[in-house]
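User: I've been going back and forth on whether these two constructs are worth ordering. Before I decide, could you fold them both?

Assistant: Sure. I'll take them in the order you sent them. The first construct and its structure tokens:
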Amino acid sequence: MKQPDYLNTKANVILYHADSIENKSDFEIFGKHLRLQGTGTAFVYLEDYQNTQVYIDVLANSNVQLYMIYKTSKPSEYDIRFHLENHAVLNLFSLTRNIEIVNLKIHRQFHIENNARLNNTKALINMGFTTLEDEVHLDSPNATVNIELLNIGAYNDKFVVTQDIYHNAKSTTSNINNSLISHANSELDYSVSGRIAKGNEFSVCRQQNKGIILDENGVIQVLPKLYIDEYNVEASHGAAIGQMDDEQMYYLQSRGLSEQEARSLIISGYTKPFVSAIEDEDIRALVERQIKKRINEANIV
């Protein structure tokens, strides 16, 4: 397969296409298992991959930046399994790029061991009907997950997202921050759950969901849930969903901005912090182009 131009200058590229895997990296693949060891950056590109299961193991004491890009031209379903061993750190950035309006389902399961940390960043700015299921198991003490998600819906896009965090040990930590934008008949449906079982004291479970609806036909639904069976923990959740603030618009326009400029500035408050945190310049530029395309196509600004 031909890899995209923005990956041509990258080292450590792994291509999943049709029923094959092409490993252009220094990391090892055993069967279906991609093993990330040591310190470094890898780029995984999945295009219409038919062997839907992918296994990614981050070995003990490793610290890896992983960029995963999904590109689909037909209905697709992926099952991605991650395992972070003791003291491993995985900085995971995922981007979904559809070239057709298709149904896409991604199920990801993460198991995080002692003193390991997952920083999980996801950009959902694609077309069509997308289902994302993230299931995170904090299996050992001091396991941590931080989730940052940006979702932009336009036209008749529909996103169904489930985020389930299982605190399976003491002194585990989870933080979820979802930033959602809906316009032009798009529907964003979120179920966000944190679970702390009895005996898993000193754990921390935080959820924050914010959303802006830019059109009267747009929909954002967020159902935050906490299942807490232990007293000595910290748990919180919140959801702030609404239409663009008229007072903010008035204030910005009173300072000389046009209506379009004011709307653009408010939207950038959701997108800019997310984009600026992407370390790779080519991937950051790719995300910026895709956000701009989605916004302009939907006539948001």
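The second construct, handled the same way:
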Amino acid sequence: MKNLKTVFGIGVLAVASFFVIAADHIDAPAVKGGSSDITDFYAFQGENTSNLVFVANVQGLLSPTATSGAMFEEDVLIEFNIDNTGDNIEDLVIQAIPRNGKMYFFGPVAPGQAGLNSTIKSTATAGGMVDITAYGSSAKIASNGGMTFFAGPRDDPFFFDFAQYSAIIAGEASGFLPQGEASDTFAGSNVLSIVVEVPKSMIGGSGKINTWVESKRK
């Protein structure tokens, strides 16, 4: 990965954080609508049970007509944080940043520093890159060193009945509707997804991890 220094022009890049937790489809003006606007974060065991999958979705509520023009911003870093010691401080990061139609991944690697600022670990031995899939095209997936990568538009997987939620908040309903009766507010809308599958052996620790995602702008 050392040759990627030339792609970014500099070896390290300082960035400042914007971050959100869990589902968040309507965000503050400073991050709304761009790559720094995280809608959802998912982490789960892969179909290959020796792997973990991390997914960050950004730029929510994209209509089909708007999706073809949606792009990952080149000054926004998406950083998957992994705490494998139980102290709620990241021990490893997986960084994803776009350049010229490709998504570059660095890590898992120890961060240069913990907290709200990061440097791109462009000399990390682990990682890879993948062509960003265009809207309406077959998914482009790349693998390197046991890891698998994807970046591009996907149907929003988050199911939420906003009308029923509003009724609950207003005191007009006592709970959510059962499956089959609930309405998916986000049906028909898209997100931009960044997906990385990584062997558990690269994560380390005792088998239990804490994980979260941040978006960080240059």
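Notes on the second construct follow. The two ends are 21 Å apart (CA to CA). Confidence is low (pLDDT under 50) at residues 1-22.
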